[in-house]
Amino acid sequence: MKKNLTILNFVLAFFLLAAITSCQKDEVEILRGELAFSLNGTSSSPVSDGGITPFISDQADNGGNVGCGDLFDDPGMLSSGRINVEDFATIEEFVAAFPQGIDVNVTDGKFVSFTATGYLVYAVIVKGGNNANVYYYEEGASFDSGLASPPNNSGSPAGLSNLTICYKPAEVEETCETAWAFGGEYALAFKAIEGLSANNWGWTNGALGYGNYSFEVYAAAGGNNLDSGTKVGYLNLAYQEGELKINLDLIAGFSLSEGQLYVGETQLPLVRRGRSWEMTNAPGQFPFELTTEEITLEFSGPIYVAAHAVVCGQF
User: Fold this and answer.
1) Which residue in 100, 104, 125, 123 sits closest to 113, CA to CA?
2) Measuring CA to CA, which of 115, 153, 182, 296 is 20 to 30 A from 282?
3) CA torsion, points 198, 202, 207, 212, in degrees to nearest 10?
4) What's the CA angle centered on 232, arms 199 and 174, to 5 degrees?
5) Which residues share a beta bridge with 303?
6) What 8-state DSSP symbol labels residue 9?
7) Average pLDDT in the 44-52 region?
8) Which of 306, 271, 23 lies closest to 178 in space, CA to CA?
9) How far is the C-alpha of 124 from the C-alpha of 87, rounded, in Å?
10) Which residues pair with 277 in a beta bridge?
11) Residue 19: its pLDDT value, please?
């Protein structure tokens, strides 16, 4: 009876160990799926100037080649495709074959450098001789140099035969900036308005008669310096007796967070301070909301227009 119990305990222990092993294996596969990368391979050289140690991937075919699809399980990963040196008459033609935004240079027929604009590079596959080095950038990289194929029998990197780059669009964080409409010859800087206590930049515009106007809208133009600002759109006005139509038209890539509009006979709105009235350029005192939808107001005679906005985008 004791012998039978021992056998039973052994069988139960075997199945328990198998179950634990299976769970651990599944966990590894899940983690690898989240990383979307196969790091299986043999450490290689040379180390890039950016400190990346390459490896020779176990995913390589019999010819030593490996592609982005062998490394990444990510539908958002882009690939330059395998670009062969021998397909081009000159190295200049070879490097020109890479996608726009991915600039490649080759030195001495062996050493590769890259610079990415608007993209992040996650792997560079450098093939020479019988194998390819994979340089992996976990967080993505916009540049690196000193990449090469694995060493040959002489101990130095083999000559470059083909190159593949795996990359994705860079995620650029949007910011929001203050913007004001600039009316060109009609623009009057706040600092130039007599009696206005204001140190901030911006303009009111006028006096405007009847007619059609299109004023540029600038963001982050501190000190009223247009060269340091960014043009984000246009403020369009159509003015006739008794009717003023205003439309804010933003350039593609920018969005409106909030907007305030002043229209009136004085350069800026008047607020009561004690027993007197004073002008203010505080957007919170502007009487109208500025949106990207056309608005219609009832006005006649000469007017001033000041338009403030908070615009978001990539500056």
Assistant:
1) 104
2) 296
3) -160
4) 90
5) 208
6) H
7) 97
8) 306
9) 19
10) 272
11) 41
Closest of 288, 231, 283, 291 to residue 256, by C-alpha: 291
Q: Which residue, chain included where needed, has tokens 């052994």?
A: 10
User: How many whole angstroms separate alpha carbon 21 and alpha carbon 3?
Assistant: 27
Residue 41 has a pLDDT of 86
Q: In this structure, is the dihedral angle defined by the CA atoms of residues 115, 118, 123 and 124, taken in order, positive or negative?
A: negative
Other beta carbons within 10 Å of 243? 13
Both tokens of 288, joined, read: 């109208």
What pLDDT was estimated at residue 32?
33
Average pLDDT over residues 32-52: 76
The domain locations on the chain are 34-169, 175-313
What is the CB neighbour count within 10 angstroms for residue 198?
15
Instruction: Tokens for 133, please give them.
Output: 């080095």
pLDDT digits (tens, 9 = 90+) for 202-238: 999 999 999 999 999 999 999 999 999 999 999 999 9
